Amino acid sequence: MNRRDFIQLSGMGLGAMMGSSIPVLGNIVTADHLLEPAADVAFKKRMADIALNATKSRGATYTDVRIGRYLQQYLFTRENKVQNIVNAESYGVGIRVIANGTWGFSATSDVTPEGIAKCAETAVAIAKANSKIQKEPVILAPQKGVGEVSWKTPIQKNAFEVPVQEKIDLLMKVNSEAMKNGAGFVTSNLFLVNEQKYFASSDGSYIDQEVHRIWPTFTVTAVDKAAGKFKTRDAISSPMGMGYEYLDGLASEKIAAPNGLVGYRNSYDMVEDAIMAAKQAKEKMTAKSVMAGKYDLILDPNHLGLTIHESVGHPTELDRVLGYEANYAGTSFATLDKWKTKAFNYGSKQVNIVADKTQPHTLGTVGYDDEGVPCKEWDLIKDGILVNYQATRDQVNILGENASHGCCYADNWNSVQFQRMPNVSLRPGKEKLSVFDMIKGVEKGIYIIGRGSYSIDQQRYNFQFGGQLFYEIKNGEIVGMLDDVAYQSNTQEFWNSCAQICDKDDYRTFGSFFDGKGQPSQVSAVSHGSSTTRFNGVNVINTGRKI
Amino acid sequence: MSIILTKEEAKKIIDKVLAFSKADEMSVSLGGSRTGNIRYARNSVSTSGESLDLSLAVTAVFGKRSGTATINEFDDKSLEKTVRRAEEIAKLAPENPEYVPMLGPQTYLETSTFSESTAKIDPDYRAKAAFESIDPCSKKGLTAAGYLEDSSGFNAMGNSKGLFAYNKSTSIDFSITVRTADGLGSGYAIRDFNDASKLSTKSATEIAMQKALASSSAKALEPGKYTVILEPAASIDLLQNMMRSMDARNADEGRSFLSKKGGGIRLGEKLFDERVNIFSDPSNPEIPKAGFSGDGRPQEKIYWIENGVVKNLTYSRFWAEKKGVKATPPPSGFIMAGGTESLADLIKGTEKGILVTRFWYIRAVDPQTLLYTGLTRDGTFYIEKGQIKYPIKNFRFNESPVIMLNNLEAMGVPMRIGGSLIPPLKIRDFTFSSLSNAV
């Protein structure tokens, strides 16, 4: 038994991020309880072995056991008030088996020899029952056991050890500075996650991992009641695979951008961003409404990350390509026949998109995935050509490969693991190029920063993206702020219009903390790195309306 | 212990918990459910499962500080421990200046949300339901991907001021996407009921099959403004998003489509075509709902939009108290009154237009005007002289439900969709802004 509650976010400034709610897993506990140590490794190995033996004796040909303790601390504030603090813990075990060539899964919060034995029995029974209607037996790529190993997100400051009051003080400071600088309203939030995961498999792997993630964010709203107008500006932070040190706001991790804008690499100054946001939300009130037409777009990494996520990340998920998500998320235009030609121009020559679960500070990085595969990096698009997909152990055979890409993830011990997106990032340009120089070369363009409205079709052809900040570029110079901007394109056309990419000094990651997929839906967190990039002649529409 | 407790069993546990309280105020919510699902794709079952959940949440309040703790063990010791933990969390919590004291005893409408036929669903039922959907598709060389989820459970709440509420409910949700083997046609159907005996996965699948076959080899039309017939599966998300934006506080604060230029709110203003009537009613037999909201406020029949006029907005208890008005909770599900014509009648009466099965990936573009973008999916057809002429390629739209409900041409008979009752809508000048190659 386990709770999966949803915090309703209407009025909390996050409504657009994933429908209207975010999941909270497990029981609500005290903040101190989150610091209590997990069960020791020897105990977890003993429990895992009980499951491995129980399933084997019932005829399973493969078994993996995940004993997980999932911790969440979420803080919600508005103006001078704390709206909610959630401390949640979820602890249990999930057992997945192959019997008669078919998957079976069962989970229990009863992490005792009896509970595990019963759960193991159910997993095998489900596999055998489902095998009667199974048409294609599971082909599992080999994975040599890695023995007893451990891995931990390399954090400097465990965010769960920072007193709750210190976090509230920070959010209150963010809110008060935003209000002082012209905000009518402000909501700010801090999301902290710690996954303590133990994985064991019949391949001989016993993997103990501790994963940390953090996401500070806010929404500032400026209101002009006389004009009957309001405008918002969201934080340009990124969720990260880091500890509380992400909030140190180190000057060395800031990147100066045109118009006094600041980009944040691996350290975020939340108060500074809130002050800028308040001023910019007010500026948006009087910004010029865009003239629809073709523009060269200069896309900041904090914006481009979501475009990469939607137009490259999702279409290269092999389960979508094969039709497993047809009834929900959809399928993909990046079909196997296109990939097999070895000549499908996904993008222009400078487009090199890499998948990885190894980049430091990112959300996708772990030592091993949720089926015990050591993590790695591989190319998805090389010199503009589609070269590979994202796959799990039971899928890579379709690609003619004999080792999994390590893309298996479950959002909780009681969710069955399946193919989830690794980090998917655009490699920086090889030649020295700053965003300042890039803008100088643009005659008619728009410089876009931040995550805005986003929508893409079920095969990932046609998309429309908004942003947080839009600046008009005329003859190599920024001439002012624009409003009512959204761009529409087709994935292949868009990536083929990629003209220039800034160098590695401009590289930053963007992240999605609550990416939803599957039925019943599961969330995952993933990063997307890039440098500022130019796309030529993209269709921009005006989204202004009167009601 | 059973998962679905009776009213008496639930009250006994809640009273026991309340008796442990040392707080100024305490509320307890108790819920249990059994949820099962089966998922299939490529004409084969991919996952299936069942989960049981019985859990209790205690909220303790001292002054304006509150704390919540949850548990899923029900012995006296565990219950008392959870009360102490909630009290501990409350004492450490910051003061909430917007805290409103708990409600006393309330009177609720008796509604009928539970159905035996749903409560007795077992894995065999689910396998059969999936088979009845997959089998006709396999036989015709089509590919089915579907998902069925059923749930039966109860919710109860009580507090130290004497409030007690209890409701038992069931639900079943089914969706099916059928694709042609060449990937050029795709069709969709979705159903939801309290009573599983009303669901036929076979007949829903047949509609999706027809749409898949009929949508193959779609032609491209120029983007622009078109008369559309939106099936309820298409209009629900836009209407639901609008209904969720009817919060009074946001409007008063000047950040809502209901905020007025110069200050004030648009309550009482005619914002839509006069034929638009949207209300909620927990005792409607087609979409029965619990008689109480999550915080214990009674749910009653209420008009949100009447003859095109904004009649009521939703209020938090804090905001209602501040404004001196009744604290109307947001409804769960709503009813849009329609006409007497069937979908076929609406098509017959259309000179030129587009039939939309569903919309997909709908996201807010501008909260000020409630402008949304999204795409048509799984069955979009061109209508000419009262007949479906040919399938067309999918479109991206950029449209506001407020504008849409001003451009109303006709409405059909409402049908249940996603827990609401919505008629098929015929709308003029619906804005399609680009084409999509997606099938």
Automatic annotation (TrEMBL), chain A:
SUPFAM superfamilies registered for this protein in UniProt: Putative modulator of DNA gyrase, PmbA/TldD
Keyword Mitochondrion: no
Domain Metalloprotease TldD/E C-terminal residue range list: 293-538
Stored InterPro entries: Metalloprtase-TldD/E_C, Metalloprtase-TldD/E_cen_dom, Metalloprtase-TldD/E_N, Peptidase_U62_metallo, TldD/PmbA_N, TldD/PmbA_sf
Gene Ontology process terms (BP): proteolysis
GO cellular component, one term: cytosol
Protein name: TldD protein
Residue stretches making up the Metalloprotease TldD/E central domain: 160-251
Species, as recorded: Arcicella rosea
Entry keywords, A to Z: Hydrolase, Metalloprotease, Protease
Pfam families named in the record: PmbA_TldD_1st (PF01523), PmbA_TldD_2nd (PF19290), PmbA_TldD_3rd (PF19289)
Similarity comment: family membership: Belongs to the peptidase U62 family.
GO MF entry, a single one: metallopeptidase activity
Every Metalloprotease TldD/E N-terminal domain range: 64-127
TrEMBL record, chain B:
Keyword Hydrolase: yes
Chain ranges of the Metalloprotease TldD/E C-terminal domain: 223-433
Molecular function in Gene Ontology: metallopeptidase activity
Name of this protein: Putative Zn-dependent protease
Family statement drawn from the similarity comment of this UniProt entry: Belongs to the peptidase U62 family.
Domain named Metalloprotease TldD/E N-terminal: residues: 30-90
Gene3D superfamilies in UniProt: PmbA/TldD superfamily (3.30.2290.10)
Keywords: Hydrolase, Protease
Domain Metalloprotease TldD/E central: 126-214
